[in-house]
Design goal:
- This protein has a single domain, classed as Globin-like (Orthogonal Bundle), CATH 1.10.490.
- The protein contains 8 helices and no strands.
- It is mostly helical.
- The protein binds protoporphyrin IX containing FE.
- Protoporphyrin IX containing FE (HEM) binds near residues 48, 90 and 123.
- It holds the Pfam family Bac_globin.
- Keywords: Heme, Iron, Metal-binding, Transport.
Length: about 160
Amino acid sequence: METNKQVPSLYEWAGGMPVFEKLMVAFYDKVLKDDLLEPIFRHMSPTHQVHVAHFFAEVFGGPKIYSSNEGSHAAMVTKHLGRHLTEEHRKRWVQLLVATADELELPADPEFRSAFVAYVEWGTRIAVINSQDPNLTMNPHEPMPKWGWGEPGGPYQP
Ligand code: HEM
């Protein structure tokens, strides 16, 4: 099913770029009101929200805006180096992102949410691991991660 052209990407199923951009703007509004995460993001760049939106969109099968104009997988990893993120930070980040996805009514079908949360769990755990190291150890040319529907194989069909 994964290779079937009729199966929409996660990006398409979510509703395209406006949805990812709105999601990240609303998410980082929450982050900046959160006592645990605010100190980490207080000085984030003004392009942070839109870059993270482009990164997520690309991972989920959307246009290659992040990797062609804004960064690369290694550039994204570099932003986390030496920040010593903890499991507590990560858990809160995930909780707030999923809560924002609910509030903005991203597709709530089991298949989409399973894939969405799988990537978020994977990506945030990678971020915590990389943040313990002050230096980039990965291949600087490593391609962007690509996320598909996984085991469910496609969106929910009643
Ligand atoms: C799927 C997981 C994640 C992805 C895809 C991701 C993606 C990104 C991207 C693309 C940037 C660069 C933004 C820019 O160019 O301005 C960035 C920066 C950053 N991320 Fe993440 N991130 C993830 C998880 C986390 C987590 C869990 C934390 C902490 C709890 C975190 C903390 C930061 C910080 C502090 C920066 C630098 C912000 C700044 O000072 O501009 N990230 N992230």
